Amino acid sequence: MSLVDRFGAPVSTDRRASVEALDKAAHLLLGYFQDPLWEIEAALAEDPDFVMGHCFRAGLHLISSEKAAVPVLEEELRELERLRDRANDRERGHMAAIRAWLAEDFHGASEAYGRVLFDCPRDLIALQLAHQCDFFLGQSGMLRDRVARVLPDWSADDADYGFLQGMYAFGLEECGQYERAEAMGREAVARNPADAWAVHAVAHVMEMQGRPEDGIGWMSEGAARWSPGNMFAYHNWWHLALYHLERQEDARALELYDSVIRPVRSEVALEMVDAASLLWRLHLRGVDVGGRWTELAEIYEGMAVDAYYPFNDMHAMMAFIATGRGDDARRLVTALQQKAGEGTSSTRLIRDVGLPVVTALQAFEEADFERSARILLEVRKRAQAFGGSHAQRDILTLTLLEAARRGGDQAMVRGLLNEREAEKGASPWVTAQRGRQAAAPMALAC
User: Fold this and answer.
1) pLDDT at 107 over 80
2) pLDDT tens sequence across 329-363
3) Degrees (nearest 5) of the Cα angle 404, 408, 412?
4) What is the 3-state secondary structure (H, E, C) of the chain?
5) Are residues 62 and 109 in contact, defined by beta-carbon separation less than 8 angstroms?
6) What value does the mean pLDDT of the chain take?
7) Residues 6+ apart with CB under 8 A from 389
8) Residue 435 pLDDT > 80, yes or no?
9) How confident is the model at residue 426 (pLDDT cuts 50, 70, 90)?
10) 425 pLDDT exceeds 70?
11) Contact 231, 34 (CB under 8 A)
12) Domain residue spans in the chain?
């Protein structure tokens, strides 16, 4: 006998209590509320043969993007292989995704979840996991299109419809469809003001369109609804800090860092990425951030040879550079060089994007600004492949611009500022950069 979960997707169990626990954990994950892992582990303690429970637990660890999650994924895959004969097709599809991720075939994992959705468009768990995989791989079109494939199988009457809208809004934004993205995101938030992912989709639109005042209003006015008890709140606060940086309000960005972005030490990779990214933006501006880099660098030190997910490695390199940890920086580069010769999708990301980026950062620290700018100018064309959002990958352009400035290439600085102003308008930060450019000597134009 089998039951269906809250979305209407089949679950190979006759234990209603297990399905109810999965429903609760899935709802918590959709909204990034705490703590879906505790909920599903409690269910598995009562029902060790709950196949979809194991799939869900594995999926939670899979989307952590951390090598430290590999032992748990291996443990879960062993359990799922033991239970394979009782699994349904949906659950076997989840197993295929977990198996692919463990083989560092990250693209294969995203497609395995996508295959589940072709056959079972009501599997909102698979959709959310695929959505995160596509995000990690910079697959902007799939962030939009996987959701579009299943939307007709849902209706506005479904209790969880707003979560689909939030995911779709983010996909639309990453594809540059800003008006549709904002409208969809706002509708999702109207349905559920606590939906931090939908809030974040609208925040991305405002970031990409150069609307810091609108962004500050959007994030501040709704914070009481999406922030308390939300595992994703740190990232939304990061977006608020970016708006303040665009307005040249560096001190306010640091206040947000201390109070809501990085209030306590955390070894969660996704949280560390936002922390390092914000500090690096301030580092490029010459802002003294005190000892804030130290605890990040200490954690990254233990990950320097992982060579697992290169987007994380880029931020580790920033921490090593900012704290003068040259040995750790060299260990990181060596580990990436060694891994780049292998044949998985992970190693292709390292070879094509990750290794060039950390090499450019290392050159920046060594004051070889011409080399740093040359590498970044080239790799920026394909940087989407190693994941993150457009807003997160903007760190490459900001570093390129500063490398060009410090290297004396004022023509490149001028071109990059023209590019940025055309996209985002003349913000206070862009205006300040124009002032710095005007004060610097420049060769005669041809």
Assistant:
1) yes
2) 999 999 999 999 887 778 889 999 999 999 999 99
3) 45
4) CCEECCCCCEECCCCHHHHHHHHHHHHHHHCCECCHHHHHHHHHHHCCCCHHHHHHHHHHHHCCCCHHHHHHHHHHHHHHHHCHHHCCHHHHHHHHHHHHHHCCCHHHHHHHHHHHHHHCCCCHHHHHHHHHHHHHCCCHHHHHHHHHHHHHHCCCCCCCHHHHHHHHHHHHHHCCCHHHHHHHHHHHHHHCCCCHHHHHHHHHHHHHCCCHHHHHHHHHHHHHHHCCCECCHHHHHHHHHHHHHHCCCHHHHHHHHHHHHCCCCCCCHHHHHHHHHHHHHHHHCCCCCCCHHHHHHHHHHCCCCCCCCHHHHHHHHHHHHHCCCHHHHHHHHHHHHHHCCCCCHHHHHHHHHHHHHHHHHHHHHCCCHHHHHHHHHHHCCCHHHHCCCHHHHHHHHHHHHHHHHHCCCHHHHHHHHHHHHHHHCCCHHHHHHHHHHHHCCCCCCC
5) yes
6) 95
7) 135, 174, 204
8) yes
9) confident
10) yes
11) yes
12) 262-437
Q: State the pLDDT at residue 251.
A: 97
The pLDDT tens digits of the residues spanning 157-194 come to 999 999 999 999 999 999 999 999 999 999 999 999 99
Instruction: Supply φ then ψ for residue 345, to 5 degrees.
Output: -65, -30
For residue 366, what are its two tokens? Answer: 């060594």
> What phi and psi, each to the nearest 5 degrees, are found at residue 11?
-130, 130
Alpha-carbon distance 127 to 123, whole Å? 6
Beta bridge partners of 230: 33
Phi then psi dihedrals of residue 4, to 5 deg = -125, 150
Strands 3-4 and 10-11, bridge-based pairing:
antiparallel
- Enter the tokens of residue 273: 């990425």
Ramachandran area for residue 15 (φ above 0: left; ψ -120 to 50: alpha; else beta): beta
Radius of gyration of the chain (CA): 22
